[in-house]
Amino acid sequence: MKTCPGVSLAGYARAVAYCESLLRPVTGQVDKNALRVHFQRMGCFLRHMGQPQEHFRSVHIAGTSGKGSTTTMIGAILRAAGMHTGVHCTPYLQTPIERMQVDDLYASPADFVHLVDALRPHIDYMRQESAYHDISYREVGVAQAFLHFARSAVDIAAIETGMGGRYDYTNYIQPLAAAIVTVDYDHVGILGPTLAEIAYHKAGIIKDGVPTVTGVAPGPALRVIEEEAAQRRAPLFRLGQEIRYTIHSVGPEGSVFDYTSEQGTINDVQVKLLGRHQVANAALAIALAEQLRAFGLPISNEAIRRGLAQARVPGRLEIVQRQPTVILDGAHNPEKMRSLAAALRELFADRVPVLVVGVLAAKQVDSILAEVVPLARKVVVTSPTVLDKPAVAPDALADACRQFGVDVVVERDVSDAVRRAEHMAGTNGLVCVTGSLYMVGQARELWVPTSAILNQRTSFPQ
User: Fold this and answer.
1) Whole-angstrom Cα distance, residue 447 to residue 452?
2) Distance between CA atoms of 444 and 433, rounded to whole angstroms?
């Protein structure tokens, strides 16, 4: 099957395999000095490429949870305002083109191949001639997105950090505005074991004089962010203080809320993404849009409404089937699991779910399970397949789940686990697949094949 003249799906697969050859094992433990060195290496890579990130305006979004949704929402608002908009979200669920979206379309497989071809000389330089003698898969993925946006001549791009912020590979952009959505426990072996240490990394995206919005709750993490903003003389807008919202309704079709800031009030805003937590993310997206207006971006309240009503994110409280109802949610840290558990209780109060759970070994497994397993009727344990990140062995994960007094079965294949959970739930039941974005991507293949995403360049093909 041809994706465009001269580029086949086999060619795309070869380009993906070449990028994957740059993967390095992830242990979940990296010291700060190594983070700095890897960040400096990324700077060397971008300089050799000619600094593609300097050829478009941007907005930068970090946070433990909600950053992907917030990035998608501000991207949708910017598109609704008529701007040629790039969106970089990571990780992808099913195929790498998802990391590079321009307007409503992912990069095509042909685009991906051409971008990889353009990067090869720079990759060779980094591996053979630079002082670092190496470059990693994730650095290449970010550089690829930057180059795609530069070549596409986007008006602006919404860029999500991968992890942390201060030493994140995306932190070479000079954004018009920034957001730190939340700070909670994740990647503690790399970012640190305390909220203040984690916040230090997130706060690193704050640039001199650049307005920043945050949903971080009062406490040690917010104090770190406030101190960084003060040092940088960056205006800071905090959810619950300068930014406020009032929820009118939360239901299976989305939420309705009023938004208020120093710039005024927007009433009866609708957000289609499910869950009460998405209202907070939407409020931060609106706050970002308000800050961007100061740079002359023509973002009307009507564009904000349209964008939030249109924003969709695969694998986040995504209902992919009825009878039984099957929900995919990539929650993979305790904070995300709390949001998922709250949404299940609120949106599906009349049903007790059968869970399909798989977790990566680097995660806080017991804390993750404690948030959601007690809600379940039964649990089907499985294991996501990730090239550079080991998963918790299914038998060990099953033992951890049994501590909560639920019935547990093991299915090592993700597809088999989902189908078994459907059978256990029955026609009128509820199945929730969660614990890992990678596993959710593998499960989603049952309803949305990767071939359709590649052909139509969207996670929601018709």
Assistant:
1) 10
2) 10
Which two three-digit tokens encode residue 59?
């907005």
Which of 110, 61, 109 is CA-nearest to residue 87? 61
Contact 389, 137 (CB under 8 A): no
For 334-385, the pLDDT digits (tens) are 999 999 999 999 999 999 999 999 999 888 899 999 999 999 999 999 999 8
Domain residue ranges in the chain: 2-313, 318-452
Three-state DSSP at 297 gives coil
Q: Which CATH number does the domain 318-452 belong to among 3.90.190.20, 1.20.210.10, 3.40.449.10, 3.40.190.10?
A: 3.90.190.20
Hey, is 238 helix, strand or coil?
strand
**Nearest CA-CA partner of 381 in 327, 438, 326, 435:** 435
Two structure tokens written together for 369: 């399970």
From 228, 46, 59, 437, select the one nearest 38 (Cα to Cα).
46
CA distances from 125 to 128, 132, 285 (A): 5, 10, 39
Q: Give the chain's radius of gyration (CA, Å).
A: 21
Closest to 162 (Cα-Cα) out of 132, 189, 191: 191
- pTM for the model: 0.95
List the one residue out of 158, 140, 131 whose CA is nearest residue 42. Answer: 140
Decide if 388 contacts 25 (C-beta within 8 A): yes
Q: pLDDT digit string (tens) for 409-446?
A: 999 999 999 999 999 999 999 999 999 999 999 999 99
At residue 59, φ and ψ (nearest 5 deg) are -130, 140
> What is the dotted CATH code of the domain comprising 2-313?
3.40.1190.10
Polymer length of the chain: 462
240 Rama class: left (phi>0) / alpha (psi -120 to 50) / beta: left
Question: 160-163: which pairs have CB atoms within 8 A and are 24 or more residues apart?
Answer: 160/61, 160/62, 160/67, 160/68, 160/71, 160/88, 160/89, 160/90, 161/60, 161/61, 161/62, 161/63, 161/67, 161/205, 162/90, 162/91, 162/138, 163/187, 163/190, 163/191
Whole-number Å distance between alpha carbons of 216 and 220: 10
The Cα 50–Cα 56 span in angstroms is 13
